[in-house]
Amino acid sequence: MSDTRPALRERIALAHAAADAVAEARLQAELATAETAMGALPEAITALDRAAALFQLAGRGADEARARYGLSLLLWKQRAGSTLALRHLEDAEAIARRVGDLSLLGKILDRKAGMALAAQAYPEAARLLNDVASLRESIGDHDGRLDAIRRMASVASLMGDPKRAFELLSEGMVDAEAGQAELLRARLELNLLARGARAVGPRQPLDPKMAGVRAEPLSVLVADAVALGDHGAAGYIRLQMAADANLGGRYDEGGTYSESARQDALQCRDPMLYLLACLSIAEVREKLGDRVGVLTILFTCKATLQDLLGEAAAKPVLGVVHSVEQRWGAEVFEAAMVEYRAQF
User: Fold this and answer.
1) What is the pLDDT of residues 174-203, one digit of tens each?
2) Quick one: which of 16, 51, 214, 330 could link to 25 by a disulfide (CB 3.0–4.6 Å)?
């Protein structure tokens, strides 16, 4: 990747000398993008902060709002100054409302919904997601609308209201003009809700409204995902198929589904799907008594995630390896490690 920062700094100096605030602000925003790509977050934050100030001076509200939104994301990414990040997000929201930038406003509210969800403030998350769904509908973003509704359904489930979750998804899909990929994800959510309804215990009587809910076969969903070329959806569906097979003691079948999900994850470069698929494979191999196979898939997973995301991504896998050692005992674990190393 070529470093464009020196040339951008020269152009910024020229724009500053010419007292062209808008041109300088746009160049500062470009510089922030370049600094971020090079991993220089403090420098990116400085450049985007300057861009926001210049847009404000020039009376370019929409541009200022987008700069402040980007600034809030950078501050959170740097994990420094969360109060400052929130202030920029609130400023961006106020400006977006004033200038009528509904697309940006939807992104901001979506971000705030994620924050509320992380804080387990479920009613607030539901309210914000409802606003996001309405905004995206108003600008004709049908995929975005259905995505917000799917997340509202997830929040309803977290709040212990599966009936509301089912209603949200069902109504959202009836008049949805979303693409097939987004609809497929909604169908999978409905499948999981229906399965959950069937799994209620003796002290949790099935809600009459859920009595007629039927889980669409996973085999149909995965076939549609494959036909669409949607490896992400296919992978998550196959993980559920693997879980079903393992629950029924069909470990070879579960292993096949898990391995297919791992290949899907590699195709779409989804680290979370890859991790879950590897853990599923490890579970199957342990059930079959293949200790060396367990270590092989875990260390393969560690190496792949490190390549994708860096050293920090290895920590969850190392935690699993440690738990395996504790479960097996030091002597058995070390013997399996000797066999594992002998492969190479």
Assistant:
1) 666 777 777 887 888 787 777 765 544 434
2) 51
- Which of 222, 163, 229 is closest to 190 using CA atoms? 163
Distances (CA, A) of 335 to 218, 298, 321: 40, 16, 14
Residue showing tokens 């009936």? 163
| Nearest-angstrom CA–CA distance, 201 and 76 | 42
* Whole-number average pLDDT of the chain: 87
Outline where 60-179 has alpha helix (H): 61-77, 82-99, 102-118, 122-138, 142-158, 162-174
* CB 92, CB 110: distance < 8 Å: no
Residue keyed to tokens 């929201």: 93
Tokens of 292: 């060396």
d(CA 18, CA 50): 17
pTM of this structure: 0.65
CA 174/CA 55 separation, integer angstroms: 43
| Token digits of residue 300 | 């393969």
- Determine the Cα–Cα distance for residues 147 and 172; give it in Å rounded to an integer: 10
Query: Cβ(258)–Cβ(284) under 8 Å?
Result: yes
Long-range contacts of 10-19 (CB under 8 A, 24+ apart): none
Tokens encoding 19: 């007292």
The total of other beta-carbon atoms located within 10 Å of residue 288's CB is: 14
Helix (H, G, I), strand (E, B) or coil at 213: coil
Other C-beta atoms lying within 10 Å of the C-beta of residue 139: 13
DSSP alpha helix (H) spans, the chain: 5-17, 21-37, 41-57, 61-77, 82-99, 102-118, 122-138, 142-158, 162-174, 180-198, 218-228, 231-247, 251-268, 271-287, 291-309, 315-328, 330-342
CA distance 265 to 308: 12
